[in-house]
Amino acid sequence: MSELSVKKVRHIKSHILEIEFSDGYVQIVDFAPFIFSSGHPDYD
């Protein structure tokens, strides 16, 4: 089995990134729920 890695990341808007993996899979990920649910005081 080969190792999976991130080949390219493109900023779409705000907290949304398009991530391309070494196996050719591309996924759009919205990181806002993760960032704002973390309880970090900088992101109240």
Fold blueprint:
Elements: E1 6-13, E2 16-21, E3 26-30, H1 32-36
Antiparallel strand pairs: 1-2, 2-3
How would you summarize what this structure contains?
The protein has one helix at residues 32-36, and strands at residues 6-13, 16-21, 26-30.
Report Rg.
13 Å
What amount of the residues lies in strands? Answer: 35-45%
Mean pLDDT: 90
- Termini separation (Å)? 42 Å
Strand runs, count: 3
Q: How do the helices and strands follow one another from N- to C-terminus?
A: EEEH
Structural class of the helices, strands and pairings? Answer: mainly beta
**Unreliable segments (pLDDT under 50, ≥5 consecutive)?**
none
Main β-sheet description: 3 strands, antiparallel
Gross morphology is elongated
Helix content: 10-25%
Structure notes:
This protein is mostly beta strands. It has one domain (6-43). Helix content is 11%, strand content 43%. It has one helix at residues 32-36, and strands at residues 6-13, 16-21, 26-30. Strands 1-2-3 form a 3-stranded antiparallel sheet. The chain is elongated, with a radius of gyration of 13 Å.
What key attributes describe this structure?
44 residues; elongated; 1 helix; three-stranded antiparallel β-sheet; 3 strands; 11% helix; mainly beta
